[in-house]
Amino acid sequence: MQFRISELAQRDIINLVDGARLGPVKDVYIDLESGQVLSLVLAGERKYFKLLNAGSDLIVPWEKVRKVGVHTVLVEVD
């Protein structure tokens, strides 16, 4: 399966540990030498009519990504 990095922002990120829907993909860290994805950066929660960040961003190491589907990305984080 191939996809564009920009398409990750449109997919739901679901945590397999508790079934929670995590924030959208905000950024991706890539190793410039190898070209491998190192981690996904998920946007922190928002408050006050979704205008202000309530917490810090969540960084999910690529090793914690279990499945990338058409509409969903399954991750396993504590």
Question: Could you name the key traits of this structure?
Answer:
mainly beta; four-stranded mixed sheet; 9 strands; three-stranded antiparallel sheet; SH3 type barrels; 78 residues
Can you walk me through this structure?
This protein has no helices and 9 strands. It is mainly β and 78 residues long. It has a single domain, classed as SH3 type barrels (Roll), CATH 2.30.30.240. A 4-stranded mixed beta sheet has the order 2-1-9-8, with no helix packed on it. The protein has a 3-stranded antiparallel beta sheet with strand order 3-4-7, with no helix packed on it.
Offer a concise description of the structure.
By secondary structure, this protein is mainly beta. It has strands spanning 12-15, 21-22, 25-30, 37-42, 46-47, 52-53, 58-61, 65-68, 72-75. It has a single domain (5-75), classed as SH3 type barrels, CATH 2.30.30.240.
Provide the CATH superfamily: PRC-barrel domain
User: How far do the termini sit from each other?
Assistant: 27 Å
Tally the beta strands. 9
What structural class do helix, strand and pairing data support? mainly beta
- How many helical elements? 0
Helical fraction equals under 10%
Radius of gyration: 13 Å
**CATH-derived topology:** SH3 type barrels
Q: How is the largest sheet built, in terms of strand order?
A: 2-1-9-8
In N-to-C order, the SSE pattern is EEEEEEEEE
CATH architecture: Roll
